[in-house]
Each structure stands twice: as C-alpha cells, then as structure tokens.
Amino acid sequence: MTQLELATDRGHVVAAETLAASPLAIRGLTVSYGEKPAVFSIDATVQDGSMTAIIGPNGAGKSTLLKAALGVIKPLSGTVSVYGAPLEGQRARIAYVPQRASIDWDFPARVIDVVLMGLYRELGLLRRLTGGHRQKAMDCLERVGMADFAERQIGQLSGGQQQRVFLARALAQDADLYLLDEPFAGVDAATEKAIIDVLKTLKSQGKTVIAVHHDLATITEYFDHVFLINVRKVAEGPVATTFTAENLQKAYGGRLATAQIEELELGAG
Amino acid sequence: MLFEALALQLGYNATLVAIGSTLLGISAGVTGTFLFLRKRALVSDAISHATLPGVGLAFIAMVLLGGDGRNLAGLMAGSALSAWIGLICVQSLTRRTRLSEDAAIGAVLSVFFGFGVVLLTVIQTMSSGRQAGLDGLLLGSTAGMLMQDAMIIAGGGAITLALVLLLRRAMTLVAFDPQYARSIGIDPDRVDMLTMLLVLSVTVVGLKIVGLILIVALLIIPPVTARFWTERSEKVATYAGVVGGVSGYVGAAISASAPAMPTGPIIVLSCFALFLVSLFLAPERGVLAAYLRHRRFQERVHIRQGLLSLAQQQPVYEPLTIRLLAREGLARLDGVPTEAGRARAAKALLDEHRWQIVHGMADFEAISSLYDGLRDIESVLTADQLAEIDALIGGPAEVMP
Hints:
The complex is a heterodimer.
Chain A: H1 3-9, H2 16-21, E1 24-33, E2 36-46, E3 51-55, H3 62-69, E4 77-82, E5 85-86, E6 94-97, H4 111-116, H5 120-123, H6 131-143, H7 159-172, E7 177-181, H8 189-204, E8 208-212, H9 219-222, E9 225-230, E10 232-238, H10 239-242, H11 245-252, H12 258-263
Parallel strand pairs in A: 3-8, 3-9, 6-7, 7-8
Antiparallel strand pairs in A: 1-2, 1-4, 4-5, 9-10
Helix pairs in contact in A: 6-7, 7-8
Chain B: H1 2-6, H2 12-37, H3 43-49, H4 52-64, H5 72-96, H6 101-125, H7 136-139, H8 147-176, H9 178-183, H10 188-206, H11 211-227, H12 233-257, H13 263-281, H14 287-311, H15 319-327, H16 339-359, H17 365-368, H18 383-393
Helix pairs in contact in B: 2-8, 2-10, 2-11, 2-12, 3-5, 3-6, 3-10, 3-11, 4-5, 4-6, 5-6, 5-10, 8-10, 10-11, 11-12, 11-13, 12-13, 14-15, 14-16, 16-18
C-alpha cells in the first residue's frame, strides 16, 4: 500500500508528499490500558524541521502518544511512519529522551556509561568501544554542559543533571527526529536553559524536535508548533494560529481558569 | 590436606570437581549479574525448582528405553525442558493475568517442585534398582563424577559465558532503561527471554555440582558481593565472575579435603564468606566504611558549625562541638577560642561567603554541586579564581577576641 492510499483509505485526504516529507506521521492511533483508551484515533503530521510541543491536561495521553509513536507501547490500532517509511526501518533516525523518573538511579553506571548507551545501536553485538566512541560521548556531554561530570556516579546527580545526561545520550545517536518526554519537568533554571539551547541548535541544523510539555507559559518562547490533546486530538499547527484560548479551553475544559488563559501569550487564532 | 587439594593434588575426582566448580562459578556469577541488575533474581528460583519434574521424567524415560537412568546428559536435557515450561508458566501468568511476578514465581516453584518430589518417590518404588543418587541432584553430589560429566559441565559453562559476553550490552541497557532500549530497536521482552535462557542453562549445568536448590545462591551472591566493590556494571559482572570462580574452586577443595563434605553447600558457604567480607570491609559501600564516613562527617560538621559560631561571636552550646573543638586545639573547654581557633574561624566564614558567590555562577556548576559545607574551597578553585571571588566580597574580617 502506498502512503497516499494509506492516507485516503482512512478517510483523510493528505497529499502523499506531505506524508513522505513528514518526520512523523501518525494515522488513527489508539492505545488503551485495559479497556479504556488512553489516546483515541489520533492523526498527526509533524512538520519537518519544526519544534512541536505536545500539550494537554494530566492524563490526556501525552506521554502515551509519544511512546506509542516510538513503538515503546504497542498500539491497539493505527500506523506510524517516520520520514515516509515504517517505523522499524527508521530507528536509526530517531532519538528518545524518556522521563527520568522511570529509572533506578542507583544502577551501577557513570555518566559517561549512560551516554555511551546512545551508541549501542551502532555498536551492535560485536564491535568494541573505542577511544573515538568515548570522545563522541564526551562531546555530547560538552554540548549539555556536563563534561565535568563524566566520571561521576549517576546516583550523585541532581534531577536537572540527570535530564541533561539523557539528552546527551540522545545526541550521541546523531538522529534526525528527537522525541522528549517532559524534558523540563522538575529541573532547575540552568538546566532548562541548557536544554532549550541544545534543542534550538538542533532545530537550526534542520532536525525535528517533539516534546511533551507542561508549562504553557513558555510555549510561545520555546516552540513553533503545538499539538493539543485530550485523549482525542484537539488541534495541531503553528503556535501563532493554534495556541489559542479557544483550543486551550477545548483541551483543558474547566481545568484551566479563564484568568490563567488570559495571562498567556497566545496566538491570534 | 587442604593445601594439596587447592593445588590440584588430591586425585583425579577432586581435580575434575574443582575444574568444573570453578567454571560453573564463573559463568553463574557473570550470568547472575544481569539477573540481579534487572531485579529479577527470584525468577532463577522458579527456574531451578522447575527442573525437578524433568529430572524424574528423563530418568523414567531412559530406563524405559533400556538405558542408564542416571546419564547426566539425559537428565540435563529433561531438566532443561521442564525448567523451560516452568519459565513459560511464570511469564504467561505475569503477562496474561493480573498476578504479580512474585506470586507467579511462588505458585510455579512449589507446584513444579511438588510434582518432581512425587516423581522421585515413584522412581524409588520402581524395580530398576539403579535409582540411587538421583536425589543428589537436589543438593549436588560430586562423589561419582565422571570425566564425561566434567566435560559437559565445562563446555556448557563456557558456551553460556560466551553468550553472556555477546549479549552484555543489550542486557545492561534493558536492565537500566527498557523503554529507551525499545526506542533504539532492542526488544526488552526478547532480551529478557534470552537472559532467562542463559540462567536456565547455568542451572542445568550446575545440577550435578551444587544441585537445583542451591544454584540460586551461586547466581545471586556473587553479583551482590561484587556490587560492594564497584559502581560500574561491567565491573560488577567481572568481579562476580571472580567471586563465583573462587568460591567454586575453594569450595570444591575444602569438600575434597574432608570425607563426606557436601560440595554444593560448601561452595555456597565459601561464596557467603566472600559476601560477608565485602559487606563489612568494602571501601565505599561497606558497612564499616559507611559508619566511619558518617562519624567523620558528623565531626567535621560539628567543627565547622562551631567555627562559624565563633566567627560570628556566638556562644557554642553543644558539648560534642566544644569537645571536638578542644581536641583540635581550636577552643578551650569553656568555649573560648584559641589563637588558632580564631584564625580558622575567620577562614571558615570567608569560605562560606566564597561558596555563596560560587553558587551564583553558572560556569562553576560542577564545582558548586560539590558543596557540602565542609570542603576546603582551595581544593576546587585555583588561586586566580579565588582572587576573583574575593574581589567581589572584600578581604577577610578580623574576629575580635
């Protein structure tokens, strides 16, 4: 089945070239834990070279959507294509930064060891780690401002530092599409700045960045596209036209007071 | 006697047993590391107990076919098969029902073991007459070990070890961060299954020497022991191999040096001895080191707090603080600072100000995170950097007596 057929088949008329060019195109994705869908029939077409924030209330399925797009969770239905091809063949072009809370930080590893994990795919079963690999890992740590921590035990890091180590691991993969799950959750201001600087640099290199994001106040400053979700898709598009009071009201319902919405720097709608 | 055994001079059988135990110990220790890192140590208990029905059925089958019921290769094949079925039961109970893994392990372990004991009892009543020694596989029995048995054990151990080395990165990654592993195309379920198969293989290889009940000890104690000595997963695996190998060798030697000493239990106890030594004496994570570190830390905090109080001309109330200050010659027992004490106090206060400046400077983040209120600031900053910071706060102020 060609991409065009795939798209029209489901009743969505999307030009084939848009899908082929899109770093991440999701069609009819439903994921359910037990018998309650966490995300339901989601369509998304991420723009190449964009920085997209996935936003929505707690329990809206933001992280679930991200994990299902990566195949970390098995969806009930739906297809995911990455740069116009099925996900499995495109793993080398994707880098994932999971939530740091999902990890046991007492694991016996140093900071550099965690970053080297980003090269495991490249190394396969047989290749040995060389000085070149270590140098690359150090460069990635340098980019997130953590080079001085290379030999430290991961358990000794603060939350923000842990997050930056995870970002360095993703950088080591040399991917084209970066998916981050709440990279700014519970981090200090220095980390937030370091991370956003790295992400903006990636964007300037033509890479695509997608992040689950919580802080509506920084959307306009950090991102150029938004994807609003509350189990179902609410809206997707450029911040200027999509990050509007109306869409936020739809996504958050009564959970976001009108006064809070008014304080935000919103798109024109 | 013990020395002779350690030097492989105790005869043919003891030598075979020692070589087999050493190899078994190494491969069990290294394989067990990944089980331990994955926090699924108890699955090995289910696997090992689930071997028993297979042992019984293999014996019966071999006797019925007119062969020797005690053929080790045959018994190992049977035990591997039933352990595999047990493993599948644990996996599918965990995945398809809402039972947690520990409950599934408990159920599978006891049912399989019970069934195995029934089979052994049936075999006792069979008329084949050569069943004696089958229950040796429960706790290991090396008395009648043959060259062929030793070869099977050595070969099996070596192959398992090679496969573990091949899969080490995948297993480490899945143990640390399974979701990330999946995102780069490593299937955690498949890697887990392979890990369990390697554990199964170690269990089956170890039947003859340590027996199915004690093999768990040889899988788990070495990595736990190794963990005391290092903070890196590859080193945990290496040290666990050493701990397992040494316990296998020493245990076999000790049991050979005295009549009727059971090999398996002695190996496990040797391993436990290494664990105890590590528990107390390991330099970073050991109990003794932790206690001493805590005591030293407490003393330094008291002295620092005392000095800061003196610098700000506040009285020191805590008796322990005063005693410590007096011991260091920084104050008299009535709390009045000495000459040296006044100088140190002024320095402490100055350092405290310097640290505050360092905290506010983004360039010094790595240094700033080292702050524990005690560290000498000269040990982390150069004289030039200090001068720069001092320029921001002005020179040290003299403490009035």
